[in-house]
Specification:
- With about 575 residues, this protein is of the alpha/beta class.
- The chain contains 25 helices and 18 strands.
- The strands form 7 sheets. Strands 11-16-15-12-14-13 form a 6-stranded parallel sheet. Strands 1-2 form a two-stranded antiparallel sheet.
- Helix 5 (about 60-70) runs antiparallel to helix 6, helix 7 (about 110-120) crosses helix 10 (about 200-220) and helix 9 (about 160-170) packs across helix 10 (about 200-220).
C-alpha cells in the first residue's frame, strides 16, 4: 500500500517499475496480489489504474470494450479480473415497472412512437425523429374520425387535428390558438385584433395530456420482451454511471508548505476534492463558504502541473477574492512560478504585453479576476464554430415553425428571428476579425491554458440555449450573456485540445440555485460528449428525459383564461444524480 501511495504521489499513476524498486524483495506478482481490488489492469491503456479511476464513469461501456478486447486475448487473466470488477460495480438494473416515461424522450426509438400512435388513433402512422433539428415528423395517409374529430380542437381560424396535437405531445408543447376580438382604437373606432383563445388552448392541452397518458398506458400493455428491451436500453444509457468514493488521504502533497499556511494538514474533504479533480481532470466543487475552496484550487492546480496532468492551469475569481487566492498560493507554494497581474497590467496599452507574458512563460499557475479573463481574446475559429452551430440550430427551429404555418407562437417566431440576426452580426464580426487578424495577435488558444479553475462559477450560469418552451416560467434568458459565452469558448478550446470532457473545475457554494436550466447548462459546459452519447443535443431533449411540465390555468384581470406552464419536478432523479455526482465533490 505504501508503494502504491508513493507511486501516486510521485507520478499520479500506478508505475509498477517504480513500486518494485521500493520493494526489491517482493516479486511483481506478489505485489499485484497484495493490491488486488485496489488496482486494475486496463487493456486499452496497457497499464494498471487505481480503482477510483477504473471503476468509475460509464462502467457498462467500459465492460463492453474490455469484453471485445478479450475476444482477441482470451487467456489474459488480469483483463478478465478487471471485467469481473466492472460487472460487479454495474448499478442494479432498474426494472420497467419502476421507470417513469415521458412521451417524446429522444432515446426511445421513433418507430416505438409510431407503433403507439397507430394503435392509439387506429390507423397507420409513421413517426420519424431528426436529431439535427431535434424535431419529430409524422406521416399518415389515411386519417380517420379519431384524428379529424375525437382528438381534434376547432379554433376560430383553423382545426388542430389529432396528428397536430400528437406532434405537440411529442415535443411537450401546446399550440398557440387565436381568436378575433373587437376593441376600440384611440379614436373610438371598432378594430378587430387576434388574441389567444384560452378556452381552445385549454381543450387542446387536455387532449395532448390524454395522448401522453395514452402512451404510458400503452407501454404497460406491451409484451414483457418489449418491456425488457426498453428498460435495458434505458439502463445502458442512463443507469450506467458509477461514482467512486474518492479517498484522497494517501496524497502527501510534495512542496506544500503547511507551516506558512498556519495549518497542520488539509481537511479530509479538501484532500478528497483534490484527488477527484486529479483523477477526473476537473469537475464541480460544491463547497460552502469557509469550507476551504481556495486551498482546493491552489493545491489541485499545483498538483496537476507537478504531475503533468496540466501544463498551464489558470484560476479566475471575483475581484474581491483574487488577492486572497494569490496570497494563499504563495504561502502554500513559496517557490511556485505564479503570474498574478495587477489592474494596470490589463490597461489597453499593457494588455498585449501581459498576453505575451502568459503565452511565452512556463507558469505553475496564472491568477486573474473574472473581468481580466473576459478581456482575453478567444480563438476566433472556436467562436465561429460555436456560434455557427447555434445559428444552424436557430435556423432549423425557424424552419420547423414556418412548416407549421398558422400553428405557431408569433412571439417565439419573432424571438428566433431576432436571435438569428444577432448571431449573424456576431459571426460577421468574427469573420471580419479573422480577415484583419495581425500576426502578433495572442488569443486564449495560443496561451496554452489547459485547465481552468472558475471560482464563484455561478457568475457564468447565464449561458445561451435553444428551446421551444417559450412560455414556460423560470427558464432564464435563452440569449445568455457574453460573459458566459466567453467561458464556453474557453472551455471548448481546452476540450478540443484534449479530446475529452471537463478541462475545467467549477467552484461555488450555489452551483445550482433555482432554475432547471442551470443543471443542464453545467452539463453543456463540462460534459458535452457524455450528453451526445445519451442522444441529448439540446435543452428540450434533456428536459424530455428528466423533467415533467405542468400547465395551470388562471383568470387574468380581464377575466380571460391564461395558461401558466412550469417544469415542476425532476424525474429519473437517481440516474440524473449519478451523472452529476460522477464529477462532483
Amino acid at each position: 500500500m505504501e508503494a502504491l501511495g508513493a507511486s501516486l504521489n510521485k507520478y499520479g499513476t500506478v508505475e509498477l517499475d517504480y513500486m518494485s524498486s521500493l520493494l526489491p524483495d517482493m516479486e511483481e506478482s506478489d505485489m499485484l496480489s497484495a493490491l488486488e481490488g485496489r488496482i486494475f489492469y486496463n487493456p486499452e491503456e496497457d497499464s494498471y489504474e487505481v480503482a477510483d479511476k477504473f471503476i468509475s464513469g460509464n462502467v457498462i461501456e467500459k465492460a463492453e470494450r474490455i469484453e471485445s478486447w478479450l475476444l482477441d486475448h482470451p487467456e489474459h487473466e488480469e483483463a478478465k479480473q478487471s471485467l469481473t470488477a466492472l460487472r460487479a460495480a454495474t448499478p442494479t438494473p432498474i426494472p420497467f415497472a419502476d421507470l417513469d416515461f415521458n412521451l417524446g424522450e429522444r432515446w426511445i426509438p421513433a418507430k416505438v412512437y409510431g407503433k403507439f400512435a397507430s394503435e392509439f388513433f387506429e390507423t397507420d402512422i409513421n413517426v420519424s425523429y431528426h436529431s439535427n433539428m431535434d424535431e419529430y415528423s409524422i406521416v399518415c395517409d389515411q386519417k380517420n374520425g379519431n384524428i379529424w374529430h375525437k382528438y381534434a380542437v376547432q379554433g376560430e381560424f383553423r382545426r388542430y387535428d389529432g396528428l397536430n396535437l400528437l406532434k405537440h405531445a411529442l415535443h411537450n408543447t401546446i399550440p398557440d390558438i387565436n381568436k378575433s376580438k373587437t376593441i376600440l382604437d384611440a379614436e373610438g373606432n371598432e378594430k378587430t385584433i387576434k388574441v389567444r383563445d384560452g378556452h381552445a388552448i385549454q381543450m387542446a392541452n387536455a387532449k395532448i395530456e390524454e395522448i401522453r397518458q395514452g402512451f404510458v398506458d400503452w407501454l404497460g400493455r406491451t409484451p414483457d420482451t418489449f418491456k425488457e428491451q426498453l428498460s435495458d436500453r434505458y439502463n445502458r444509457l442512463f443507469n450506467c454511471f458509477v461514482r467512486p468514493n474518492f479517498d484522497g488521504t494517501h496524497q502527501s502533497f510534495p512542496d506544500l508548505d503547511l507551516k506558512r499556511l498556519g495549518i497542520q494538514d488539509l481537511y479530509k474533504s479538501q484532500k478528497d476534492a483534490v484527488w477527484m479533480l486529479k483523477t477526473n481532470g476537473g469537475g464541480i466543487c460544491d463547497h460552502e463558504v469557509g469550507a476551504g475552496k481556495t486551498l482546493i484550487m491552489c493545491t489541485a492546480a499545483y498538483e496537476m502541473k507537478r504531475l503533468g496532468l496540466a501544463n498551464k492551469p489558470m484560476i479566475i475569481g471575483l475581484k474581491a477574492n483574487v488577492f486572497d487566492i494569490a496570497d494563499t498560493f504563495r504561502k502554500a507554494y513559496p517557490n511556485a512560478k505564479i503570474l498574478y497581474p495587477g489592474k494596470n497590467d490589463f490597461s489597453k496599452q499593457n494588455r498585449q504585453r501581459i498576453f505575451n507574458d502568459i503565452k511565452n512563460n512556463d507558469w505553475d499557475c496564472i491568477i486573474l479576476t473574472h473581468e481580466q479573463f473576459g478581456m482575453i481574446p478567444q480563438a476566433l475559429e472556436i467562436q465561429e464554430a460555436i456560434l455557427q452551430k447555434e445559428k444552424d440550430s436557430v435556423e432549423e427551429n425557424l424552419e420547423v415553425l414556418r412548416m407549421q404555418g398558422a400553428d405557431i407562437s408569433r412571439a417565439m417566431l419573432k424571438g428566433l428571428e431576432k436571435r438569428k440576426q444577432t448571431l449573424e452580426a456576431k459571426l460577421q464580426d468574427i469573420q471580419d476579425s479573422i480577415a484583419e487578424r495581425k500576426d502578433d495577435a495572442v488569443d486564449f488558444k495560443m496561451m496554452g491554458i489547459d485547465h481552468l479553475f472558475v471560482d464563484e462559477s455561478h457568475q457564468f450560469k447565464n449561458l445561451m440555449f435553444n428551446t421551444r418552451h417559450d412560455r414556460v416560467s423560470g427558464l432564464g434568458n435563452p440569449d445568455g450573456s457574453q460573459r458566459a459565452l466567453n467561458m464556453l469558448f474557453a472551455i471548448r478550446t481546452i476540450q478540443e485540445r484534449s479530446g475529452k470532457d471537463l478541462g475545467a473545475t467549477f467552484l461555488s457554494g450555489t452551483t445550482i440555485s433555482n432554475s432547471l436550466t442551470e443543471l443542464y447548462l453545467l452539463f453543456k459546459y463540462l460534459r458535452p460528449q457524455a450528453l451526445e452519447k445519451q442522444g441529448i443535443n439540446s435543452f428540450d431533449a434533456w428536459a424530455a428525459v428528466f423533467a415533467k411540465k405542468s400547465t395551470d390555468y388562471e383568470f387574468s384581470i380581464t377575466n380571460e383564461i391564461i395558461q401558466k406552464e412550469r417544469f415542476r419536478t425532476f424525474i429519473k432523479v437517481p440516474e440524473l444524480a449519478s451523472f452529476y455526482a460522477e464529477v462532483w465533490e
